[in-house]
């Protein structure tokens, strides 16, 4: 009843999203006919379909979105009653497409259309699609606080859960729906849910409860005139009697069900009824009637197949008729628009002749040209401003970079000058003492080892400083060639073997065989020496440094791993920042300038490589560099030398 009242209200109020509905007695009449068609869905589906098509033919030219969508909804439900699931699905989607033109209007009808589609998909055993529609409707009902739509969702969810054999949940949802429908005295939907509970208890083997709810459903179905549901109630009553071995009662109920199914052309339930009747006769030992029923089942299945074929033909004809009507309506609309356009032109001509055509056209052209010129000037000015802004940002960025670089250079030279002054001054003092005979040659030899260490450190610092300064002035040329990783690592380890022995640090090499890379020889040696020197520097006495190399795809990864004091997260971030100066003393207070790691980053980049660093305080540090494998490997072209 609420649905009929709402439909009449929408039609009379003109709530359409495409064009206003005529607020006339004709609109109210069409709404009444559509409501009548809805009321005949379950008892006289053919009459319901005829009335819905009649309403549809009237409302389509008037662009009454709600009544058009409602008519498609009625057609979907009526065809579902006749088990014509294809047309039911098609009309349901047509209704949804219309309602999608305004997703904020007609939420109740949208939910009912999706519930109808969900029920059709349940009957077609497409449970995934059915559940998707039911979840959408539940969210819609909860959002708009539509209790009746929510109860209808519970009703169809109980069906889905029963079909998927989740009987306890099916019964729970059925009870939720019944509680609501009883509150609004909706006997039709209460009877439907009684039937759902009867079906669930029947599948669960509880024949007493199944019989109880089926009788309740049968009584209410008779009162409200739900022919389709009554046919199912008689069928379930026959099934219950059959399982209880009450064969005469089963035959009686099946006869009632068949009569109702034949009235509404429900061939699917007819097939089930005649199949059950054949089983009853077989249990009674009546083979001939059983064979006759099976033969009838075969004929019905053929009819069902033919009906499906006929439905497809009817569907094509219906679609063609609808398309023809649409084309006719579109043609009439174009003619009407053309007629209106001609009238407007005539009216404009009269006005233009009165005030002067030439003057008006000249003024319009001048205004248009002036506006176009102004727009072009504004656009050109905007482009210039944008270019100036971009140049300003670039200049500011370059100035900031140069300032950072200058600060870095100042820090580096300050540290380096301090570090170089000490060893040179010590050497000068020792030589003075030696030449002045204040120190004997034996005493000089005694301190020469430490002096040699300081001079080696000073020499390494000077080499790094020279390389770094050349790189900053673009004076270094990177000339790549094929290098054997094993040989390069051996040379670097040999140069640092004395430093490692003095600190009692073991150098362990794990180099894969046949690894050749493409890199600059001198730059690779500087990278390896600096990484190995740092690893030894931060290792504890008696520790180990592992140098490994493996091929990975087109790259060779060289890892230098120590087990020394490691780096904190802040120290790691500062070390990887090429614009910030950072140095740290070794485990035996060895000093550094921080320049070596900057050179490693610079030269790795010049050799088309990457650097990665991982470290844990107290556990050690691992530096990984990846460089391209030599071009002799298949699929890797030899790159050119870069500056």
Mean pLDDT: 78
Summarize the helix and strand pattern as letters.
HHHHHHHHHHHHHHHHHEHHEEHEEHHEE
- Beginning-to-end CA distance, first to last residue: 86 Å
Kindly report the spatial arrangement of strands forming the biggest sheet.
2-4-5-7-6
Question: Which structural category do the helix and sheet elements fall into?
Answer: alpha+beta
Structure description:
This protein has 643 residues and is an alpha+beta fold. It contains 22 helices and 7 strands. It has helices at residues 2-13, 25-39, 45-59, 65-81, 85-99, 107-123, 127-144, 147-163, 167-183, 187-204, 207-224, 227-243, 247-264, 267-283, 287-355, 357-435, 441-472, 485-495, 497-502, 521-537, 569-576, 595-606; strands at 481-484, 506-511, 516-519, 544-552, 555-562, 610-616, 620-628. It has a 5-stranded mixed β-sheet. α1 (2-13) packs antiparallel against α2 (25-39) and α4 packs antiparallel against α5 (85-99). The longest helix has 79 residues, at 357-435. The protein is elongated.
Give me a quick take on this structure.
The protein is an alpha+beta fold. The chain is built from 22 helices and seven strands. The radius of gyration is 46 Å and the shape is elongated.
What is the fold's blueprint, element by element?
Layout: H1 2-13, H2 25-39, H3 45-59, H4 65-81, H5 85-99, H6 107-123, H7 127-144, H8 147-163, H9 167-183, H10 187-204, H11 207-224, H12 227-243, H13 247-264, H14 267-283, H15 287-355, H16 357-435, H17 441-472, E1 481-484, H18 485-495, H19 497-502, E2 506-511, E3 516-519, H20 521-537, E4 544-552, E5 555-562, H21 569-576, H22 595-606, E6 610-616, E7 620-628
Parallel strand pairs: 2-4
Antiparallel strand pairs: 1-3, 4-5, 5-7, 6-7
């Amino acid at each position: 009843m609420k649905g009929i009242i709402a439909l009449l209200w929408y039609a009379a109020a003109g709530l359409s999203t495409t064009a206003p509905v005529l607020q006339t007695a004709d609109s109210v009449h069409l709404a009444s006919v559509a409501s009548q068609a809805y009321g005949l869905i379950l008892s006289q589906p053919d009459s319901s379909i005829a009335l819905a098509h009649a309403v549809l033919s009237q409302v389509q030219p008037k662009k009454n979105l709600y009544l058009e969508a409602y008519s498609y909804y009625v057609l979907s439900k009526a065809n579902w009653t006749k088990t014509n699931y294809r047309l039911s699905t098609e009309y349901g989607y047509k209704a949804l497409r219309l309602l999608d033109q305004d997703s904020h209007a007609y939420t109740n009808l949208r939910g009912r259309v999706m519930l109808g589609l969900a029920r059709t998909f349940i009957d077609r055993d497409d449970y995934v699609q059915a559940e998707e529609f039911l979840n959408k409707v539940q969210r819609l009902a909860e959002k708009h606080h539509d209790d009746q739509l929510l109860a209808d969702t519970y009703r169809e969810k109980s069906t889905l859960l029963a079909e998927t054999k989740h009987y306890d949940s099916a019964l729970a949802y059925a009870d939720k729906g019944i509680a609501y429908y009883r509150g609004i005295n909706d006997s039709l939907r209460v009877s439907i849910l009684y039937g759902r509970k009867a079906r669930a208890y029947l599948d669960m083997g509880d024949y007493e409860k199944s019989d109880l709810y089926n009788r309740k459903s049968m009584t209410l179905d008779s009162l409200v005139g739900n022919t389709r549901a009554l046919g199912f109630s008689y069928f379930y009553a026959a099934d219950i009697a059959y399982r209880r071995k009450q064969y005469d009662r089963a035959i009686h109920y099946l006869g009632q069900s068949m009569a109702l199914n034949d009235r509404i052309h429900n061939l699917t339930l007819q097939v089930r009824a005649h199949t059950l009747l054949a089983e009853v006769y077989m249990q009674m030992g009546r083979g001939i009637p059983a064979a006759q029923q099976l033969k009838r089942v075969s004929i019905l299945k053929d009819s069902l197949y033919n009906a499906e074929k006929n439905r497809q033909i009817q569907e094509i004809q219906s679609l063609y008729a609808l398309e023809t009507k649409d084309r006719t309506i579109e043609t009439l609309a174009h003619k009407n628009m053309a007629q209106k356009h001609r009238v407007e032109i005539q009216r404009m001509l009269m006005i233009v002749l009165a005030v002067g055509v030439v003057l008006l056209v000249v003024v319009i052209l001048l205004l248009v040209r002036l506006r176009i010129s102004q727009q072009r000037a504004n656009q050109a000015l905007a482009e210039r401003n944008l270019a100036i802004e971009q140049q300003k940002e670039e200049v500011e960025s370059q100035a900031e970079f140069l300032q950072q670089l200058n600060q870095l250079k100042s820090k580096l030279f300050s540290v380096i000058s301090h570090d170089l002054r000490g060893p040179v001054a010590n050497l000068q003092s020792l030589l003075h003492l030696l030449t002045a005979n204040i120190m004997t040659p034996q005493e000089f030899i005694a301190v020469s080892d430490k002096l040699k260490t300081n001079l080696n450190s000073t020499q390494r610092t000077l080499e790094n400083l020279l390389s770094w300064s050349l790189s900053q002035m673009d004076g270094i040329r990177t000339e790549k060639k094929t290098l054997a990783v094993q040989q390069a690592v051996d040379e670097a380890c040999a140069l640092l073997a004395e430093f490692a022995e003095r600190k009692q640090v073991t150098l362990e090499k794990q180099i894969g065989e046949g690894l050749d890379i493409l890199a600059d020889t001198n730059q690779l040696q500087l990278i390896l020496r600096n990484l190995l020197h740092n690893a030894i520097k931060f290792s504890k006495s008696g520790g180990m440094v592992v140098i490994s190399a493996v091929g990975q795809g087109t790259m060779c990864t060289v890892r230098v791993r120590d087990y020394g004091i490691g780096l904190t997260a802040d120290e790691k971030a500062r070390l990887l920042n090429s614009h910030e100066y950072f140095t740290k003393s070794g485990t035996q207070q060895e000093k550094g300038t921080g320049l070596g790691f900057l050179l490693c980053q610079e030269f790795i980049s010049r050799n088309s490589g990457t650097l990665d660093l991982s470290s844990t305080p107290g556990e050690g540090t691992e530096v990984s560099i990846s460089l391209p494998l030599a071009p002799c490997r298949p699929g890797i072209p030899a790159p050119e030398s870069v500056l």
